[in-house]
Amino acid sequence: MDESLLVRKIDWGTVLDHIPAWQADRVVKLLSLEHLKRNPDVSLIVLQNVPSKKLGRKDIVKLYHYMVSREEAGILALIFPSITINYIRDWRVEKERPGIPERIVGRIRCPETSCVTNLAREPASPKFTVLQKYGVIQCMYCDTLLEIDRIPDYLV
Amino acid sequence: MSGSQAEYRSTLLGRDLVSCRDLSLREVSEIFSLSNQLVRGELRLDSALAGKKVALLFTEPSTRTFQSFYMAAKTLGAEVMSISDPSVSSMAKGESLYDTVKMLELYGAGCIVLRHPARGAAKFAAESASIPIINAGSGSQEHPTQALIDVFTIWRKRGSVDGLRIGMLGDLRYSRTIPSLCQLLSLYRGVEIYFMAPQLLQVRREVEIYLQEKGVTFAKIDEAEEMKRVLPRLDVLYVTRIQKERFPDPTEYEKVRGSYVVDASTLSNCRSDIGIMHPLPRVDELSPEIDSTPNAWYFEQAGYGVPIRTALLYLIMGGK
Predict the structure, then answer these.
(1) Overall average pLDDT of the B186-209 stretch
(2) In B113-247, which ranges are continuous DSSP H helix?
(3) Are the Cβ atoms of A145 and B98 closer than 8 angstroms?
(4) Structure pTM?
(5) How close is the nearest chain B Cα to the Cα of A109, in Å?
(6) What does the pLDDT read at residue B7?
(7) Do A143 and B117 touch (CB under 8 A)?
């Protein structure tokens, strides 16, 4: 089935393509639905388990009137290495394979409850170093490791 | 300091010591060299920090670390500001670590020695303060000054650390000394580390990754029979306390506890000159029957707490 038959093209926004099948909900979670809801012009379309030449089956997330930030794109690429990001401005499409970030600041909570970043009243913002080779990110304060595929569970 | 070393300046001057990862081999050698002179009585640093203030901020119980830092600061002639009972300080009213550190800095502290139950507390304090922070234990994360004492002991007893085979036995998962010790040992050539613990208490993966990245040879051993095979190869056996409460099932604890007690029969399976170390306090993992053997290094090890911490305060605070 051609996905273009399901949803019309968009003139402005972001299309996240080549998401592994049935993983779109984690992508949306990562983009922070609450954040998206604050913008009344944003529309969100999720396609799940559509045919794909590259992946066999895939998910697609279309965001009308929302440009995914570089930071968000980097985290998405870390969790879903197959993802491609299409930025659309006035119907013009710029395809991007985002780079993996070396550090992630402020977006992810440390899984270690005794980490200083989890203490009430301490103005310590969580920071992580990406250790892609080992499939983990590491808290820059307490050294605790978090597996990359568990990141969506610890989003701030 | 007297004589030709009067102009001595260290790369450690004004620096934090949050982690042993902060130290180069040259800096460690510098700390050891100064500590060694203190131990041998070849150097006196009385009044080297006269007019300076050292703040001891201990929000978790401590005997050895607190006392040795206190004595080190006093030996150097510094004034000591101490918060060692947070229940009677403003921290009991909910004052944050951030505010407490800022306050101590405003009161003129030249350095803050921090023990805190939160992992990452020392790094956060170091980012918050403009004066040096020395990590005296950050939860189960790290205890860098203990590691300096440990490796100094090995260096003094063996003359070198390169190429040694070091076993670590006990609770390696929740011990804060183990990560720091591993980081420090990774600075030396050809060191081999054997982690001997039940699976539940094996060394944390971040420590494994660190050692892998540094190219250090290590092995994890969780079978009692395999431990017996490794023991005769070791130069040093570093023992940590296994806490019963770490085991969800008490019968599991009873099954393994015997394998983690070092006694005369353990020694009979080791090289005759093996060094037995322990950060103390011990409970029953080290039998008193080995206290009088030349293999028992742990009291001497504890004794190096003051000279190592004296040297460290001197180098970081720029003693005269």
Answers:
(1) 96
(2) 121-128, 144-158, 177-185, 205-214, 224-230
(3) no
(4) 0.91
(5) 14
(6) 57
(7) no
CATH code for the domain of A111 = 2.30.30.20
**Range in A5-14, A93-102, B64-73, B216-225 the model is least confident about:** A5-14
CB contact under 8 A, B120 and A142: yes
| Strand boundaries in B46-180, DSSP class E | 53-58, 79-83, 111-116, 133-138, 165-169
What is the C-alpha to C-alpha distance for residues B274 and B262, in angstroms, rounded to an integer?
Answer: 12
Partner residue facing A116 (CB), from B121, B179, B205? B121
Q: In 3D, which of B213, B224, B16 has the Cα closest to residue B113?
A: B16
Pick from A2, A12, A7, A15: nearest CA to A96:
A15
Report CA A9 to chain centroid distance, whole Å.
Answer: 21
CA distance B185 to chain A (A): 18
Nearest CB partner across the interface for A122, out of B96, B138, B206: B96
Domain housing A111: 103-154
Question: Looking at residue A99, what DSSP letter applies?
Answer: P
Residue A93 · residue A87 · CB < 8 Å: yes
**Which chain A residues are closer than 8 Å to B141 by Cβ?**
142-143
To which CATH superfamily is domain B3-142+305-317 assigned? Aspartate/ornithine carbamoyltransferase (3.40.50.1370)
The model's pLDDT over A98-146, given as tens digits with 9 standing for 90+, comes to: 889 999 998 899 999 999 999 998 999 999 999 999 999 999 999 999 9
pLDDT tens, residue by residue, B284-298: 899 999 999 999 999
Instruction: Kindly tell me if the per-residue pLDDT of B45 is higher than 50.
Output: yes
Tell me, what's the pLDDT at B2? 45
Distance from CA of B209 to the nearest CA of A (A): 8
For chain B, what are the domain ranges? Answer: 3-142+305-317, 144-302
What is the complex's ipTM, to 2 decimals? 0.91
